[in-house]
Please model this.
Amino acid sequence: MKPVVTLITDKVGMINVYIGDAKFGVFDQIDGKESDYCWFPRSTEKLSGDAIMAIGEKLNELNAERKGEAQSESTKVFADVHNLFLVSGRVCGDDDDTVHIVSGNDIGDAVSTFEEQLRHDSRYPDENGQVYINTLHPLSYAIDQHI
Model:
């Protein structure tokens, strides 16, 4: 059964992502109101492929609404995940990998978005801005392979 993803906006405008009663991260815009939302996981618990797909669909819906491209409820279909990528990596000095689902036209776009997010979000900024990529897959492949 497909998990239900709930989005709840808090007092500071952060969009919290819940599956059931558990918070699994936030959707945020790193470049201001004109940029797409990205998912920042906040839980160490592994998510099932169905849960990742459900989060990806919500992310696509949110970005479509932001752009004024949302379909009406009666014609809405499942989101296309072909522009979503699973990327993990770290900045120099950080011992833990960070995993994000990012959108991009291709792998290069996904890497650029991830690097920017990681530099922005990391408590260990590297002087040279070096980001080490450990995993990079289209989201559909990552789900099929249970990555």
User: Anything to note?
Assistant: Residues 73-79 have pLDDT under 50 and may be disordered. The chain has two domains: 5-66, 84-144. The radius of gyration is 15 Å.
